[in-house]
Amino acid sequence: MAITVGTTGDVSPEMNSTPLIDVMLVLLTLLIMTLPLQTHVISLVTAPNTRHFAPPPFATLQIDFDGATFWNGHAVDRATLDGLFRIAAQQSPQPAIHVTADRLVRYDGVAKILADAERSGVTQIGIVGADRY
């Protein structure tokens, strides 16, 4: 510890931070030396051709504030929606379903639709936004 003597004769103890800084620098140096180098390289010859890449299929499911559902912009009822879920679950590759719910919709309505999708076998489903569309 270092001690500073003021003009009034009071002694105020201060902590010497130099050894702490030295220890930190040694630890930082050891950390940098022990980190493995990045040796993973992707060869450009074996990279897939991105010009022929097709985006994965998806369907949009919009839920209005009053619980009305829209599949790809078309209004559907609950029975039709169950059929669409079954059709989507049987496709290969399975299309991702993007759910957009209005901010005023009740949670119960959205939870029932998500449960119906899971019961039908849909595995690729996600919430896109909770805002008005």
Write the layout of secondary structure elements.
Blueprint: E1 2-5, E2 11-14, H1 18-34, E3 58-63, E4 69-71, E5 74-76, H2 78-90, E6 96-101, H3 107-120, E7 125-129
Parallel strand pairs: 3-6, 6-7
Antiparallel strand pairs: 1-2, 3-4, 4-5
What would a concise description of this structure say?
The chain has 133 residues and is α/β, with parallel strands linked by helices. Helix content is 33%, strand content 23%. It has two domains: 2-34; 55-129, 2-Layer Sandwich (Nucleotidyltransferase, domain 5).
Relevant terms:
single chain; about 130 residues; alpha/beta; Nucleotidyltransferase, domain 5; five-stranded mixed β-sheet; two-stranded antiparallel ribbon; 7 strands
Could you characterize the architecture of this molecule?
- The protein has 133 residues and is an alpha/beta fold.
- It folds into two domains: 2-34; 55-129, Nucleotidyltransferase, domain 5, CATH 3.30.420.
- 33% of the residues lie in helices and 23% in strands.
- The chain contains three helices and seven strands.
- Strands 5-4-3-6-7 form a five-stranded mixed β-sheet.
- A hairpin with a 5-residue loop joins strand 1 and strand 2.
- The longest helix has 17 residues, at 18-34.
- The protein is elongated, with a radius of gyration of 30 Å.
- The model has no long low-confidence stretch (mean pLDDT 83).
Order of strands, main sheet, comes to 5-4-3-6-7
CATH architecture classification name of the largest domain: 2-Layer Sandwich
How much is the radius of gyration in Å? Answer: 30 Å
Taking pLDDT < 50 over at least 5 consecutive residues as the criterion, the unreliable ranges are none
For the report, how would you describe the main beta sheet?
Answer: 5 strands, mixed
Number of domains: 2
Query: What is the CATH topology of the largest domain?
Result: Nucleotidyltransferase, domain 5
Number of strands: 7
Please give the share of residues in helix: 25-40%
Q: Output mean pLDDT.
A: 83
Number of helices: 3
Q: Termini separation (Å)? A: 64 Å
Structural class: alpha/beta
Inertia-based shape: elongated
What string, H for helix and E for strand, traces the elements in order?
Answer: EEHEEEHEHE
Q: Give the CATH level 1 class of the largest domain.
A: Alpha Beta
Oligomer: single chain
Strand content: 15-25%
